[in-house]
Design goal:
Layout: H1 8-19, E1 27-35, H2 44-60, E2 70-78, H3 81-93, E3 110-115, H4 119-132, E4 136-138, E5 162-164, H5 172-183, E6 187-193, H6 196-212, E7 215-222, H7 238-241, E8 247-251, H8 254-259, H9 261-267, E9 273-276, H10 290-293, E10 298-302, H11 310-316, H12 338-363, H13 381-384, E11 388-390, E12 396-398, E13 408-416, E14 422-431, E15 439-442, E16 469-473, E17 482-486, E18 491-492, E19 502-503, E20 508-510, E21 517-519, E22 521-523, H14 530-555, H15 560-564, H16 567-583, H17 593-626, H18 633-640, H19 646-664, E23 668-672, E24 679-685, H20 689-712, H21 723-746, H22 750-780, H23 788-795
Parallel strand pairs: 1-2, 1-3, 3-4, 4-5, 6-7, 6-8, 8-9, 9-10, 22-24
Antiparallel strand pairs: 10-13, 11-12, 13-14, 14-15, 16-17, 18-19, 20-21, 23-24
Helix pairs in contact: 2-12, 3-4, 5-6, 14-16, 14-22, 16-17, 16-22, 17-18, 17-19, 17-20, 19-20, 20-21, 21-22
Length: about 800
Amino acid sequence: MSEFDGYSDYRQNVETTWLCGCTEFPVLIHFCVSAPLLRWLWKNYQYVLAFYFAIQEINKDHHLLPNKSLGFQLYNALASNSLTLLNALYWLAGDHSLTPNYSCQTRSKSVVALAGISPVFSAEMGTILELYKIPQVMLAFFQLTYGPFDSTLNDKKQFPSLYQMATSDSSLVHAMISLLLHFGWTWVGLLVSDDVKGEQFNQAIRAEMVKSGVCLAFTFKLHETRTVYETIGIASLYDVSISSANVYILYSNIRSIFTNEHLGVYYLTLGKVWLMTAKWDIVVDETQHMLHSFHGGFSFSPHKGKIPGLNTFLKTVNPSRYPEDFHFRHIDMLTMSDSSYLVYNAVYAVAHALHRVFLETIEMGFLEDAAQPLILPWQLHPLLRTTQFTNNAGDHVSLHKATPRQAHYDIHNIVNFPAGLQIMVNIGKFSSGSGRDQGLVIKEDMIEWPVAFKETPTSVCSQSCGPGFRKMPEEGRAVCCYSCVSCAEGEISNQTDAEQCIQCPEQEYPNTERTHCLPKLVTFLAFEDFLGMALACMALVLTLLTVMVLGIFVRYQDTPIVKANNHTLSYMLLISLLLCFLCSFLFIGRPNTATCLLRQITFALVFTLAVSAVLAKTITVVLAFKAMKPGRTMRRLLVSGAPNAVIPICFLIQLTLCGFWLATSPPFVDTDAHSEHGHIILLCNEGSITAFYSVLGFLGSLALGTFTVAFLARKLPDAFNEAKFLTFSMLVFCSVWVTFLPVYHSTKGKVMVAVEVFSILASGVGLLCCIFVPKCYIILIKPEKNSLKSLKKKVGPKRV
């Protein structure tokens, strides 16, 4: 491009410096760099050095372009749309006449234009170059914060003569997300340039954040203006500055960065970790402190090899060698930037394409015409599209973008020193695609964090939910903003930030912290337990006591008191009570199929036998006193033993109900893993609840009927009359089982079984004590009352 007003001396100096060393320039390359170099983009001058180094290497190479030399024309370009088009015409015409299709240049025209200011600059310049079919190789956009590739310039229909040296930065989003996840940063801010490329990056990283569980604290668009002195209102940055996010992603171009200079000077950078898309090839006045503000941030740049000989070349280029060039004393000579690397590759790409053109010309036997240029620009297009080579750094370079390749990014840590020195420390890399080196590699011990952080910073909307808790999203906020709630009963979470708690298996239960499932202890009413042992001892004592009472009745069976109370029914009642106490042992111990089938059936049958025996005794007492009145009916019933028939009738009814129970849905061994925390209750499932309550219902009805009969007979003469005792015994029996039902249903586990055992023992004790203890007292303690004389004495006065 032609010089911009005020910079003609600079163009003259550059051309004098770099063109005077060449004797002939049969092939020219047009190279454009941004202007002004002295103020903002002084590192652009380094690209000139990389460009010249590549030219020198190629001209010294005896295998690449032998007997040929590369020349070049170097121009500045100001990032202005109107001046870009105007200066392109100046260059093509050779003077300032701007005569269409006329050139006053006497030298050979350039065959390739290497440009690299911005995508807008390249597109505008390409509009003019397309008319002459001059290839345009995009070196880089070397914007401050974003990679060189631009998809809008990759449209061959619109820009058939434009080639981009840089590969697509589609993997940059994955690289950044990988770094965020590595440090657990899920709450980040995003600042992008307000242009097409910024919007593309915005959409791409948002989609990847959704997949990875990273949330945006805010999105701020950096507006672009035409002059670097125009700034947006400071107040508009306030909302960004108060964000709770400690990590910001910056994706912008140079115009946006300068436009929002206050962003770095006053508000956002200090105490924040910045993720930027490329090394900043700018310098600013010390009063601005922009670069210093980004201390501790990270820069992502495409991986580049080390070009042999470049550092040596840069060391030898100094003001003493080129005293007329006053720009060296500002230059960071030894820093190999991303854009310098692309400049180097672009020159070699053109050289390889030219080499193939000359080989084809020689093979076809065409002679060179001195009056014509050695090569026309349009002849390079077929060869540039397919140019592939390995540069001196060992990296593969190709202008053919059809086949996607694995992307490699170097990750640098920005370190600034008080003296103004800035270095980029390589602390890791990222590789996309497949392969052994795939993924993120970080050297954390080499990272220098911003001064506000003494250790690795955190950037989250909500603090992590530890094990035992789960995240509860907050309505109306991002998914990264949540509350921590404890896992529900029976659930655990064994990881940080669990979305849902995990239900423990039925055989396990959560620990107190609800972080692990522990195996439940199998529990039942065991003989080894204190409760089981106490009930077993009680049952054993009562069994022995019943045996003793039975022995006493057998021993004194010929005494009046035993005979008067129907000793046959007394024996039967004592035997049934003995079985009742013994059946308690079926409820104690580990349940199995046999005990589950027998416990309730045995309990129902033996208690039916006991209660029906009491009913028979009660009926016998009533008939005995009724038989004393005139008439033979009652006496005949009494003598025939009809009351005793109640026992088999009731027993058969109960046996039928139990048989139906066993035939339809018998009891079985079951487990209860929910009623008691940390335990699996081993129990007997009753099977058919209807059958179970039918059996209990019949037993209850029988007991209630017996109590009613005994209550009606309570006022009969009391000489050896047990009607009162039978009434009281049945009152105790009914009271126990009426109390049993609600207590039984309100308890769980072995306590429920213990309640039933206790009810069996208590009701049995009520019958034993109320009916037989008074008789044993007379037999053993008051034997004088156990005589016919005493019997007649009591009965006489109370004869009804």
